[in-house]
Amino acid sequence: MLILASRSPRRRALLKQLGLRHRVHPSKVEERMDPARSPRDNAKRIALEKAIDVARHYTKGIVIGADTIVVAGRKILGKPATPSEARKMLRSLSGREHVVYTGFALVDADSRKRVVAVERTRVRFRVLGTREIEEYVKSGSPMDKAGAYGIQDDWGAVFVEKVNGCFYNVVGFPISKFYTVYRQFMSEIQKNH
């Protein structure tokens, strides 16, 4: 049994795309940045905390935790709290390159064995107009996404000029890397049972 420690409809859809049946049990872990750690390490740490939090509720199954962090220059862009913050984030990404990190963790609820990995993708935005930023923010779409955009959205997609690395990582779940790590983890778990 696979348990996704996230409400993200994008992560659910990507797991389904891989043919992996799962249930959803959102974690209650707060996504707090540790300023002493790099964005890469924060993404891994938060993903693991989410998976451990949910694994405590089960005796069997593999729990998947994930966390996506967007970094523009030296600034970490989380999920915007207000439409005004979303506009500000989108203006800061306009015409620039940023980096997306997604950390993911697998925790076996039975043995408590775990594995953690992270994927990094560079994304370049074209220069955005004030009106299109406004329209996108009005749609409500940016409000539940790190960096205030979804590359898979109608509008979010047209903001992106270039992607260097895993596209699905920018969606919020690097499925190729996840699938490789997941298969290896499952074979190790089965060897020990």
Secondary structure category:
alpha/beta
Would you state the CATH class?
Alpha Beta
CATH architecture: Alpha-Beta Complex
Low-confidence stretches: none
Helix amount, in percent? 25-40%
The domain count comes to: 1
- Provide the gyration radius in Å: 17 Å
Number of helices: 7
Order of helical and strand elements: EHEHEEHEEHHEHH
The description of the largest β-sheet is: 7 strands, mixed
Can I get a quick summary?
By secondary structure, the protein is an alpha/beta fold. It has one domain (2-191): Alpha-Beta Complex (Maf protein). It contains 7 helices and 7 strands; from the N terminus they run βαβαββαββααβαα.
Question: What would you note in describing this structure?
Answer:
The chain is of the alpha/beta class and 193 residues long. It has one domain (2-191): Maf protein (Alpha-Beta Complex), CATH 3.90.950.10. It contains seven helices and seven strands, in the order E-H-E-H-E-E-H-E-E-H-H-E-H-H. Strands 1, 2, 3, 4, 5, 6 and 7 form a seven-stranded mixed beta sheet that branches. A hairpin with a 5-residue loop joins strand 5 and strand 6 (114-125). The radius of gyration is 17 Å and the shape is elongated. The mean pLDDT is 94.
Summary tags:
single chain, 193 residues, alpha/beta, Maf protein, seven-stranded mixed sheet, 7 helices, elongated
